[in-house]
Amino acid sequence: MKTKQSFYSHGKLLLTGEYLVLDGSNALAIPTRLGQWLYVNEIEEVDSKLLHWKSMDHSGNCWFETEIHFETPENANPDHKIHNTLLKILNTAKQLNPKFLSEEKGYYIETKLEFNSAWGLGSSSTLINNIAQWANVNAYELLEKSFGGSGYDIACAKHHKPIVYKRNLGKPIVTETDFDPPFKENLFFIYLNQKQDSKASIKHYQSLPIKDFDTAEKKVNEITEKMIECTDLETFEILINTHEEIISKIIKTPTVKSRLFPDYHNSLKSLGGWGGDFVLATGSPEDMSYFKDKGYTTIIPYSEMVYLNEK
Length: 311
Prior knowledge:
The chain is α+β, with helices and mostly antiparallel strands. The chain folds into two domains: 2-176, Ribosomal Protein S5, domain 2, CATH 3.30.230; 184-305, GHMP kinase, C-terminal domain (Alpha-Beta Plaits, 2-Layer Sandwich), CATH 3.30.70.890. It is built from ten helices and eleven strands. It has helices at 81-96, 123-135, 139-146, 152-158, 198-206, 213-229, 233-251, 256-260, 289-293, 302-305; strands at 2-14, 27-43, 50-56, 62-69, 106-113, 163-168, 171-176, 187-191, 268-270, 278-282, 299-301. Strand 3 and strand 4 (62-69) form a beta hairpin. The longest helix has 19 residues, at 233-251. It is globular and about 65 Å long. The protein starts with a strand and ends in a 6-residue tail after the last helix.
């Protein structure tokens, strides 16, 4: 057995445009330092049409292992959700590229996450983008036909800089941007100790009878543009506070600050689906003791979280 190929994708964080990005708003998103690897090893022995799959977590422990025969129909193992989800992604990739996994040979596959899978940084999107690279197919199409979603996470997986992401008639438009706030030492990402279900968040949003979408979209697009250009923390805080109020009204959900941290004296912003994963907090390193005292101990400074392309 020999290593044939390796693929890598960045994790993601959505700074602006959550929910509204599904309907065409501009969204500011950033690739994270941590991502996921996929290693493809060709099996030289006679083991045709068999794929051995092993997934490793951020601590180096195997959290999932299975074997897949390429001709196995989907949902052949209804009691194993992860197995069937993986099989669906692979079969979808084969539909998009019939040459993928068509040779009479087997493979040993290993994936390695660099971040805690509970953090919501994109364990699924990094996997899909890696498989898309391996299969030589369009990652956005693979996402759409498997998990669904806006696709901004796939864009983050592919890019090495912050991006502005927009969907136009379902097609992604991605523009790299030089978003690098000079006050980044006052920005922190705080994990809320629970993972948010992205599919549930999307379903909730799509079930709402949204009024004044055009007005909200225009305001959020303006905020996104101003945040990229912002050079001082006070203005940045005003922008994210306004953004929180807009989305709160749209999805009829209290802001994370009013719900969990009403007495925090600086600003907080939800990222992605509201209710879990990370939030963005402004303040000093000393201010972070407020969250630690409340049991939120996973606090990551901006420069340690975001891929800054320092090469």
